[in-house]
Write a structure and sequence with these properties.
808 residues, alpha+beta, single chain, globular, six-stranded mixed β-sheet, 37% helix, five-stranded mixed beta barrel
Length: 808
């Protein structure tokens, strides 16, 4: 099916068999309604009307919305063209009221009203009615709001805060609020399994800095005013999907609540928390009674525990009977997940004794939960050396097999329970959530109970993580509640690639540094692995066991464990690789399929990459800067650039995005058995500082972009002693097409920041645009058009096109 036929099939016969002229732009004043009048009887947005949209295809979007206007006018025209109506249906109004209380605030009230109406009517559909095209139309309209934003980013067009009204009026709108409403609608679509974003995420750098910077600064100030540990706050942000962008809704919720202070963290910084250095083994054990002086110690015979472990593998203590006896394997028990710095570990006391009041508190809660036993590492690890070693190795299984895992954290016990989402936010800000071992315990658990402060003095309440604490639906939860819930859910999902391990552990600390690699191995599911081996061997075992990794995790600046072949791209310590957090929007997307790399047993990493050929100008001093500082890393990159024709850049960014590193590799050979695979030698990560295409017109930049950029299946670490080879020859690039680029020192992805201003949408301009529609470059065609003969404009990397092919 050709492009025009596809558009007509999805959006109605808008072109009568030919590509229509671009629509005229519209002017909108800030108070203009974006919704059409309501109809009587039932939901106003359920009747089928002509031209309903069937799928979020950005090429078709451009047939509905004029590109020669501001971002806000473009967004407003999309809303008007969607023909969504006001709705007075009782069910829809009830949904709207619930959503209105949690949806992000926005200065452009008409747009927020459009988003609320669209999502509230969508929520009113029954499962059967969701098959209707009208339901898809509402979903598509929401998803298209993101395409407007994404398209401007990829095409290098400005995202200005101005809304052009009638009679030349200009309205300035806070773009952060508008973008937050767009993201809110996307999370709802993704939650419904609609695959709202092909790329699977809302990248932290999607928005221009001028949009989010004031909100992030305000969020950091709020964190300081509320007495939060800055290290804990920023670690939380870096683990979330949008990173610094998620600070804004999190801190707004904290400011309103005002009960999250971290006592004693006044000297912590964004990069370091002083509490991570506390030796928890030197803590006095906690008392739950009123008078610690009269509290006796309860003894647990470690010999009985060792006998039980050697007999049936159980190190759980029974709750029943006067005698303290181990519980036979297979009986229901509760495992305690706690923070030793609270005094719930052994501390400075005897290893086989605990405070009687502490035992009574834990055992009473476990009994109330219907358990017959308790597993608590303070008393459930045998003393005998060999038995202890085996028991520690199997420790995570005790959390996996528990009926419940009970979370005890004094910070949460000082936080009063409320049914408003705040306890979930407290949980991700607690010391318990920052520790490496507790992350493993949460990952292994089936059902989790959490202790909070009750309304009665001295009385705690037990709440279920899934039933009581986590948000159920982004449409009916505050953004802060949903973000916190997503962070917790990430720790409970199956870890399928190396990058998931990194996201889990890098923001977390352990009392002993070697514990981090052990936890990484246990999270990866390593069994019978000897963690006494060198760290590099454990890193290899984790990577080959999982066999998958995301490309950004290769963008490190460290010395690698080998200089060639397998694992030549990997540092000895797995946690030295960068994180790449999965996002809320990955549900139903093709993200994992497209950009996850495969790692084989030999340590060769293979997958699809966007690449760019190097030019002579790239080899000049200061143009490609090493990401690392170690001299061996710098030297390796400088030597490779001496033979720049053998090199390519992988993971090239969009125009103007030069803050993230890209990967420099040297091409070796191409294998064509089955799918073509290009073998490359790992060189290192670099910052691309080469100012390309200065002074070139748009057509020339576009042609140069096409000549130097490509998409290929790349394998790193399989050179097997073969020398580097000319990248143009290996990749089969036409030398005639490249003639001139090498001498000029130009090339690379088109830099669109050439002073091009937004069109003002006046009649004269649009008459020109209308008459030149067939030849003029198209914002969204330039994003997705895979036609090699396309004349104008930058094009979205081919990995994106591959995603669209999957979607089709």
């Amino acid at each position: 099916m050709d492009d025009i036929a596809s558009i007509e099939a999805q959006f109605g016969d808008i072109g009568k068999g030919r590509r229509p002229s671009p629509p005229r732009p519209i002017t909108l004043d800030i108070d203009d309604a974006l919704l059409q009048p309501a109809t009587h009887g039932g939901c106003s947005n359920s009747p089928l009307s002509g031209g309903s949209w069937a799928r979020h295809d950005p090429m078709a979007l451009n047939e509905r919305v004029n590109k020669h206007t501001t971002f806000l006018n473009q967004l407003g025209q999309l809303c008007v063209e969607s023909k969504v109506r006001y709705c007075e249906n009782e069910t829809c109004m009830r949904n709207r009221t619930e959503m209105d209380s949690v949806a992000p605030l926005c200065e452009w009230k008409a747009f927020r009203e459009w988003a609320l109406t669209t999502t509230s009517c969508q929520a009113s559909y029954s499962e059967h009615d969701k098959r209707a095209r009208t339901y898809t139309h509402l979903r598509t309209a929401c998803c298209m709001t993101h395409w407007v934003l994404l398209g401007r980013k990829h095409d290098g067009r400005p995202v200005s805060p101005q809304l052009r009204g009638r009679n030349g009026r200009l309205h300035k709108v806070d773009l952060m609020g508008v973008c937050e409403v767009i993201y809110w609608t996307l999370t709802i679509q993704s939650f419904l399994g609609m695959g709202a974003v092909f790329e699977g995420r809302w990248e932290p750098n999607l928005l221009p800095q001028h949009i989010f910077f004031p909100a992030v600064v305000k969020a950091a100030e709020t964190a300081s005013e509320q007495g939060l540990c800055p290290n804990r706050v920023w670690s939380l942000a870096m683990a979330s999907e949008r990173q610094q962008l998620d600070l804004h809704p999190l801190m707004e919720a904290i400011r309103k609540h005002g009960s999250f202070r971290h006592a004693g963290h006044e000297h912590c910084t964004a990069g370091f928390c002083h509490f991570t250095t506390i030796d928890s083994t030197r803590m006095q054990q906690l008392h739950k009674c009123a008078d610690a002086r009269t509290c006796a110690k309860k003894h647990f015979d470690s010999r009985l525990l060792a006998e039980s472990f050697n007999r049936d593998g159980s190190t759980t203590w029974s709750l029943s009977g006067g005698a303290d006896t181990p519980l036979p394997a297979g009986r229901p028990y509760v495992a305690i997940s706690h923070v030793w710095s609270d005094g719930t570990g052994v501390g400075v006391g005897e290893k086989d004794r605990v405070n009687h009041c502490l035992w009574e508190s834990f055992s009473g809660i476990c009994a109330d939960l219907g358990a017959e036993g308790i597993w608590w590492d303070t008393i459930s690890i045998p003393m005998e050396r060999e038995t202890r070693r085996k028991a520690i190795k199997a420790m995570n299984e005790n959390y996996k097999n528990a009926e419940y895992v009970l979370v005890h954290d004094q910070y949460l016990l000082d936080f009063e329970w409320a049914d408003d989402g705040s306890p979930c936010l407290a949980m991700v800000l607690s010391p318990w959530f920052t520790r490496g071992w507790t992350a493993l315990e949460l990952y292994m658990s089936k059902r989790v109970k959490v202790l909070y402060k009750g309304q009665q003095p001295g009385v705690s309440v037990v709440k279920d993580l899934d039933d009581d604490i986590l948000a159920k639906d982004p449409a009916r939860s505050t953004r802060a509640h949903w973000i916190a819930s997503s962070l917790i859910r990430k720790l409970r999902k199956e870890l399928t690639n190396v990058s998931d391990i990194l996201v889990t552990l890098q923001p977390r600390s352990t009392s002993k540094s070697p514990d981090r690699i052990i936890i990484a191995g246990l999270l990866a599911g390593l069994k019978d692995h000897n963690f006494q081996l060198p760290v590099g061997e454990t890193t290899k075992a984790i990577i080959t066991h999982l066999g998958r990794i995301r490309p950004p995790s290769l963008m490190h600046g460290h010395v690698t464990m080998t200089t060639s072949d397998g694992f030549s791209w990997c540092p000895p310590m797995i946690l030295d690789m960068p994180t790449d957090a999965a996002g809320d929007l990955e549900s139903g997307s093709f993200y994992n399929e497209v950009v996850t790399l495969q790692v084989d047993a030999l340590g060769r990493v293979q997958g699809d990459w966007d690449y760019r050929l190097l030019t002579r100008g790239d080899a000049e001093e200061g143009k490609l800067l090493p990401f690392g500082t170690h001299w061996s890393v710098v030297m390796k990159i400088k030597l490779a650039l001496q033979k720049w024709r053998n090199c390519i850049l992988l993971g090239v960014r969009e125009p103007g995005e030069k803050d993230e590193p890209v990967l420099l590799v040297a091409t070796v050979a191409k294998e064509s058995a089955g799918r073509e695979v290009v073998d490359c030698r790992y060189v290192g990560s670099v910052h691309d500082r080469h100012p390309r295409n200065v002074g070139k017109d748009r057509r020339e930049r576009s042609m140069m972009f096409k000549r130097l950029h490509g998409f290929a299946c790349i394998r790193i670490g399989g050179e097997e002693g073969r020398p580097d080879a000319d990248a143009r020859e290996v990749l089969g690039m036409d030398e005639c097409e490249l003639n001139g680029d090498d001498e000029e020192g130009g090339g690379g992805d088109a830099d669109h920041d050439d002073g091009e201003k937004e069109d003002d949408g006046d009649d004269k301009h649009n008459e020109t645009a209308d008459s030149d529609a067939d030849s003029d470059d198209d914002d969204y065609n330039s994003i997705v058009d895979s036609d090699p003969d396309e004349e104008f404009g930058p094009r979205r990397p081919r990995s994106f096109l591959r995603t669209l092919q999957h979607a089709s």
